[in-house]
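Quarterly update from the structural biology core.
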Amino acid sequence: MSEMRLFRLTEDGAQPVPTRALRRERDLQRTVEASMGTLLGAEFLASEYATGEVHRGRIDSLGLDRATGAPVLVEYKRGRDHNVVNQALFYLSWLEDHRSEFEALVERRLGPEAAAGVDWSSPRVVCLAADFTRFDREAIRYVGRRVELVRFHCFEKGLLALEDVVAGGQSRSIELPADAPEPGAGVVRRPSLGRSFTDKLGRAPVSLLTLFWELDELLCGWTGVERESLQHYVAYRRQGRNFVCVTVLPGIHTLAAYLTLPDPDSVEEVAGLVRDVRGVGHLGTGALEVRVTCGDDLEAIAWLLHRAYAG
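Predicted structure, tokenized:
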């Protein structure tokens, strides 16, 4: 991360303002909640909002966008934490499933007119942290939600700077290629592959997005791995060869990973997650298909992914 420098202009020239470490995450949260209108352009609604016995979470801050009436969900991290985006999207999923509860909160705090004007078309998710990982910055490209990554800098004499790192999901649009013309007689037409990988992932539920980025972080964490995003799948390579290709199976909220192994016949079925796809048409390369629908599935086949990586 490049360090932000702040200077105070005096008659003797520019004098640097020393940075100050943030001792507690709660200090930043209180500052933002007290000045949410100035800092984020939103009316403050609630702090540490409980999401119930089933969900068992607490949303750091809730607000309402002054300009659009969109819900604003804010999560804070004092340091650099790759889970901040996942956590925020986890809470957004709950919020979108409990719209009436949020609107009731708006009515209690701001009145019935504000509650009637809540706009759910583009809720804002604001992640405030000291820094963000490559995982965070890359993840929001695929999310299809309005996610804002904001880096904060604290300085002495009570000065605070907010730096917009990247904002995702606001104006992203995907244009699908037009269908090919009808072939002539005797020509075999290749079946349509449907929507692109990016489009399918953008339309997926938050839980599947989170699962994909957990898988991506695992694979990219190994030495020498390169990732290439292709139209219909993502290829993970080592030393110039694909060892895993990942795509989204439409309609069933499932990731499919295709593994290239030197000895696929030696792999036994893992809890029904693995199947031999030699001779079966599929996207990407690989002899074995692994279907992943939850974190437990990912844990169960992590050793097999590493075996493909090791070659």
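The first strand starts at residue 7 and ends at 10.
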